[in-house]
What we know:
This protein has one helix at about 50-70, and strands at about 40-45, 50. It has about 80 residues and is an alpha+beta fold. It has one domain (about 1-75).
Amino acid sequence: MSKRWGKMMWELTGVPGFTGIRPHAGNTSKDTEGCPIVGKERDERHGEVSGSRQARDALYAIMDAAEARGEPIVWFVDGLPESNG
């Protein structure tokens, strides 16, 4: 249960140094404090995504179904910029 949003939301756990990471709907970086924003299409030039609510609902449905089947849900992150340090 997300205290901030007052509803059940999926949460990514086991991320060193982070808690409360929840994939959610939004259109720009102004709509998040670091959580992944999901979308159907992205506009890298303007830093926006579209179709976010539909994408979030589809993602949550996939994860709900996997949980109901007793399957583990694992996220892999790929394509992050390399650290300068």
